[in-house]
Write a structure and sequence with these properties.
Largest sheet: none
Radius of gyration: 25 Å
Number of strands: 0
Distance between the termini: 23 Å
Shape: flat
Oligomer: single chain
Structural class: mainly alpha
Length: 122
C-alpha cells in the first residue's frame, strides 16, 4: 500500500511539473486559436448582454425542440402499433438503449448522493 502511495505521489509530481512547464504555452495557444470568441474589452455590461442573448436564444429554440420531440413520440407510437413487425436486432437496440438510460439514472443517483451507495454519509 505504501509503495502504491509513493508511486501515486511520483506520478502526481510528474504531472505537476509537466503542467508547470507547458501550461502557459498551452493557454496562449488555446487563446490564440479561439480569439474570435473573445469579447474585447471584457466588461460586465458585455457579459450581461451575452448572457441574455444566450438565454433568449435558448428560449427561442424551444418550439423547434418540442416539434422534434413530437416527431420522435409519433415514431415510437407507430412502432408500438406495429410491434409485431419488430425484428430481433431492433429489439436488441431498444433494450440496450433502455439499459443505458437506467444505468445513467443510477449513476446520477450515486453522484447526487455524494458517491455513496447507501445514501448516508459514513
Amino acid at each position: 500500500m505504501a509503495a502504491r502511495l509513493a508511486q501515486l505521489q511520483s506520478k502526481a509530481c510528474q504531472a505537476k511539473q509537466f503542467v508547470a512547464k507547458n501550461g502557459g504555452a498551452y493557454y496562449k495557444k488555446l487563446m490564440e486559436e479561439n480569439k474570435q470568441y473573445i469579447q474585447d474589452p471584457p466588461t460586465v455590461e458585455k457579459c450581461n448582454e451575452l448572457s441574455k442573448q444566450l438565454f433568449y436564444t435558448r428560449l427561442a429554440s424551444i418550439p423547434g425542440r418540442t416539434e422534434t420531440l413530437r416527431k420522435e413520440l409519433d415514431y415510437v407510437k407507430h412502432i408500438w402499433k406495429n410491434r409485431s413487425d419488430i425484428h430481433v436486432p431492433e429489439l436488441g437496440i431498444v433494450t440496450l438503449f433502455g439499459l443505458e438510460c437506467f444505468c445513467w439514472f443510477c449513476a446520477g443517483e450515486i453522484v447526487g448522493r455524494g458517491f455513496t451507495f447507501t445514501g448516508y454519509y459514513v
